[in-house]
Amino acid sequence: MYFQRAAKTGRRIARTGGSVLPIKEVLFLMKGDGEMFAIRAAVFAFLLALSSAPSMVSAQESNWAAKMFEKQKVDFGVVARAADTRYRLKLKNIYQEDVHISNVRTTCGCSAASPSQTLLKSAEEAYIEIKMDTEKFMRRKDSNVVITFDAPTFAEVRIPITAYIRTDVVINPGGAKFGSVSKGENHTKTLEIAYAGRPDWVIKDVKSPREYIDAEVVEVSRDENAGLANYKLNVTLSEDAPAGLIREELMMITDDANSPKVPVLVEAQVESDYTVTPEVVPLGTLKVGEEKSFRLVVKGRSPFKIEAVKCETDYDGLEANLTDSARPVHVVPVTLRAPASAGSVEDHLVIKIADSEETLKVRIYGEIIE
What we know:
Layout: E1 2-5, E2 12-16, E3 19-22, H1 23-29, H2 34-52, E4 74-81, E5 85-92, E6 99-106, E7 111-115, E8 119-120, E9 125-132, E10 139-151, E11 155-172, E12 175-182, E13 187-196, E14 203-207, E15 213-223, E16 228-237, E17 244-254, E18 261-271, E19 274-277, E20 280-287, E21 291-304, E22 306-311, E23 318-320, E24 327-337, E25 343-353, E26 359-369
């Protein structure tokens, strides 16, 4: 509860949730004795509880939308000319109401942005794909991504983005894009790196963030008089790469004193013999003990059986209706019971394929309330 002074009457008023009471009426609730006093005291306690409950999204909360984003600024750093320069800015609906994105735009032609989806249920996640145009533009570029919401109330979030696009290093193509590849096989892409500047410039090393992504840089030619150097970057996605979307960044290390690192994007969709959709299930907001039902579609290249579906954490509030027959497509009805305690939940459903070492995973997440 909080107090404020009425503009015209000069009376103090008490505000509880959406209701307003004159202070003399609040004090009146505390008068009396015996049974009547107990009733009035209970009413007063109820009003206090209302005032302390979490408020819904309102126009008064000007920054409610900004609270959903993982970061408030995107800095790409120093990148090569023509490099594929993108970032997925994550946001999560942390409110009980549905959130709707009505528009996404940027303030500079050097950048573009688009949402993965426009409607987010409670506890649901999405991302804004941000891309810098490193072919038409060079040197320092600053822009903003402007995300407009029209539900539950109007709001606008402005995310500054910046990048410095080098003029002396060019990558062709802009990244190692493997597209859809089969799991259990090696795949290689070759990129050309062209440099114009110092006669003794060299790429010293390439660092990979994952063991299943191997990179090797080879000097192809050099013209010291003209200050030109050409390299080939061979990127190999190994047979050990996990199924699903891979989006990582290699880092070339040069001998530049000021900007020694040059990032290179690696993307692939690794397809296994079996796939499951959806790969992510947002549970939304559930009450303790409430049930949530959904379907999983599991596909194989040939008929197969599903041995089991269970939670990775061994939570036992899961039921999956499985068939005994082998078929190339299984539609699996799943019912999940919310845990007995409130809070955020995140787990994976593990799908075990019969007579196979292969397992599939489905991420689930949500909010549990009393």
